[in-house]
Amino acid sequence: MTETTTDDDARHREKMAKRKAVQDAEVASKRIEKGLLIVHTGPGKGKTTAALGLVLRMLGRGHRVGVVQFIKGAWDTGEARALKSFGDRIAWHALGEGFTWETQDKARDIAACRKAWDTAKALMADPGIRLLVLDELNIALRYDYLDLDAVLADLAARRPDLHVVVTGRNAKPALIEAADLVTEMGSVKHHFSAGVKAQEGIEF
Amino acid sequence: MTETTTDDDARHREKMAKRKAVQDAEVASKRIEKGLLIVHTGPGKGKTTAALGLVLRMLGRGHRVGVVQFIKGAWDTGEARALKSFGDRIAWHALGEGFTWETQDKARDIAACRKAWDTAKALMADPGIRLLVLDELNIALRYDYLDLDAVLADLAARRPDLHVVVTGRNAKPALIEAADLVTEMGSVKHHFSAGVKAQEGIEF
């Protein structure tokens, strides 16, 4: 090892030691533990899949998880099958009936969304549930199939240790305002533009 | 039901029928099936969790999946435990040794990244693997712990039906150029700013 390399190594160590001190101080400064209201929105991919990753993480920690699908319940998804292997630790409710342009029946869509919200409230009241995913709730709110104020009031009244993840494009500003953590999935590049079709295990 | 409501319902049906026609035509126009190179980057949360969601989806479809963690292998994560229940359908390799400011040893970090890349190549050569997650590979590339051109050449030479997901902030422009699908996770709001600490099942 040349002297230059040794100097370089020492500089790297010093720089990284400083960064670690900053990192440790930052971690130590956060003391609050609370159930988070998390929103995954934006036009890019990854909103539902990131929620599923959190489901997996929570299951791995030994907790129970609830999932309510507000829109695409009619889809036969790979993840639903995979999660079945976790038995009663996952409460999965696929209550939406496909996207609204599939049903073409507004009254039916509204009824399905209301039923889904009742299920969500029942899961919020279940003290065994640690994480609740409200998949595509933003779509139901966007079309005014559910009353935004009522939804926000129910979310605010949930027990303090319950984490909730809401997914879907076009999250309402009032929901973003109420949330603790909001990620906007931006589409930098999409294979559909290159004529690639939806594929098993990726899109469904 | 009043006449106005019926008109409204009819308009809704017509609008949704048109949208469905556009949607169906769009779906029909995509004919290519190929293994995608997917990149999850950006400062927001959800990069790794969205990759995990794809893992779950692929497992649900009955396929085998490979995961190589380039950086945070020393972490004891909930998801690793959850995925163990899928047995040999998941090949999980946690090869990174914590973030580089934890090790403070550049030579060790580089050696760990090279070993991780060799493992990634072995998994790419395994015809049973349908999806390969290269978690935090972007960090390894950003610090030049791996040669970008060599990594891109290996990715380009993979078999045509293998889906690969690369995660981590600051994806290199050449990787974005090579990718089929790129999502930028933007941080709209983060609970760490409000003094909330990293919590079990959410951050780890």
How does the SSE layout of this entry go?
2 copies of one chain form a homodimer.
Chain A: H1 3-29, E1 37-41, H2 47-60, E2 64-69, H3 78-84, E3 90-94, H4 100-103, H5 106-124, E4 129-135, H6 137-142, H7 148-156, E5 163-167, H8 173-178, E6 181-189
Parallel strand pairs in A: 1-5, 1-6, 2-3, 2-4, 4-5
Q: Segments of chain A where pLDDT lies below 50 for 5+ residues? A: none
The helix/strand class of chain A is alpha/beta
Strand order of the largest sheet of chain A: 3-2-4-5-1-6
Largest protein-protein interface: A-B, 86 and 87 residues
Question: What is the level 1 CATH name of the largest domain in chain A?
Answer: Alpha Beta
* Span of the ends, CA to CA of chain A: 52 Å
State the CATH architecture of the largest domain in chain A. Answer: 3-Layer(aba) Sandwich
Fraction of residues in H or I helices of chain A: 40-55%
* Percentage of residues in DSSP E strands of chain A: 15-25%
Instruction: Give me the CATH superfamily of the largest domain in chain A.
Output: P-loop containing nucleotide triphosphate hydrolases
Biggest sheet overview of chain A: 6 strands, parallel
Work out the number of β strands of chain A.
Answer: 6
